[in-house]
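Quick one before lunch.
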Amino acid sequence: MSRAVWRVEPLDGADDPRFPHWYAQVAASMPYERPWLSVPSAAFLQARLRVQLFDRTTALVALDDDGEVVGAGEATVNLQGNTHFGWGDVQVAPDVRRRGIGTALVGAVEDVVRASGARFALLASHYPFAERETHGYRRFAEGLGYALDLDEIYRVLALPVDPDLLARLADEAAEHHRGYRVVTWVYDVPERYLASWIDVHNKLGSDAPSGVVQFEEDGMDATSWAEEVAQLRSVGRELRSTVAISPDDEVVAYNDLVLQDNGTGRVSQWGTLVRADHRGHRLGLAVKVAGLRSLAETHPDRTEVHTTNAEVNAQMIGINEALGFRPVAVHPGFYREIRG
Ligand SMILES: CC(C)(COP(=O)(O)OP(=O)(O)OC[C@H]1O[C@@H](n2cnc3c(N)ncnc32)[C@H](O)[C@@H]1OP(=O)(O)O)[C@@H](O)C(=O)NCCC(=O)NCCS
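Model of the coenzyme A complex:
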């Protein structure tokens, strides 16, 4: 490694021979000083590079003069909805930081996002609460012209949750949603509920709080949903979707839990949403509690559930804290306008 000007190239998909080196950078950087993060399996990240229907991810490698991989990046552009922004992720192994590699990777991320026609590039990070104003990752982003968009808070729930607490919360909520059914589906959604299930999922983008960069409804359809499920199934990431079904037989609330496939015993809580016209029935609590009870039955070996929420989302945080989730870190989002 001999100079401070780095070449960045896209990987040629999941089968590029440099993929293992790219993955090694991600694995070295991501959990460094952030034990709450776990590295996705290589199989999952490869599957994501293969399935490019709903969004498209380009993996980027930073190379030194000898062609050695010294940093990893990803640029993701949305293909169905929310095409006005794209995401970047950059990871530099701790032993080669502060040499300009991260800066070079962000430049390449912006090139990909700009080429898609998007107006904003977004970056995300994680750091402890005590350093939220001063952390080096924040300084890095701000030094490249990014501003804070929205702080999410990363929370962890230790399993098992006391079954009596879950039973009590389920009973309290049930009083408020008589006539609704709450069920858990693993991977597959029955055909007659697919349209309303997709509709509530697409609303997560627009209904959850966003920052300066406003999110629209996502544009997932039955085809892209089928692709996503096939991808999760192919790597053994079990998707457990707990839903509330209204008296007129539509999915009007959901909570998704995804079992991580990296041997950590961790489960990720993805989205939770109650459709606006069905709020006030404690359905958000109901689907979360039912999801956890079902998980405890089928996977008693799982040790933690991880989730993030916008810091301003008081209602969702209230539900999570009632269940026992505890805050562990700040998960900030940064944005930069890359075309006028
Ligand atoms: C953030 C990260 C990508 C920076 O990579 P890097 O290769 O060290 O970054 P650069 O060398 O290009 O840094 C450019 C400038 O950013 C600032 N910066 C970067 N890391 C910093 C740190 N830890 N503390 C203070 N300032 C920092 C400095 O101003 C630096 O210039 P300087 O070294 O001349 O002072 C790397 O630390 C990392 O992988 N972190 C974990 C992943 C992550 O959070 N990525 C998203 C960040 S928004």
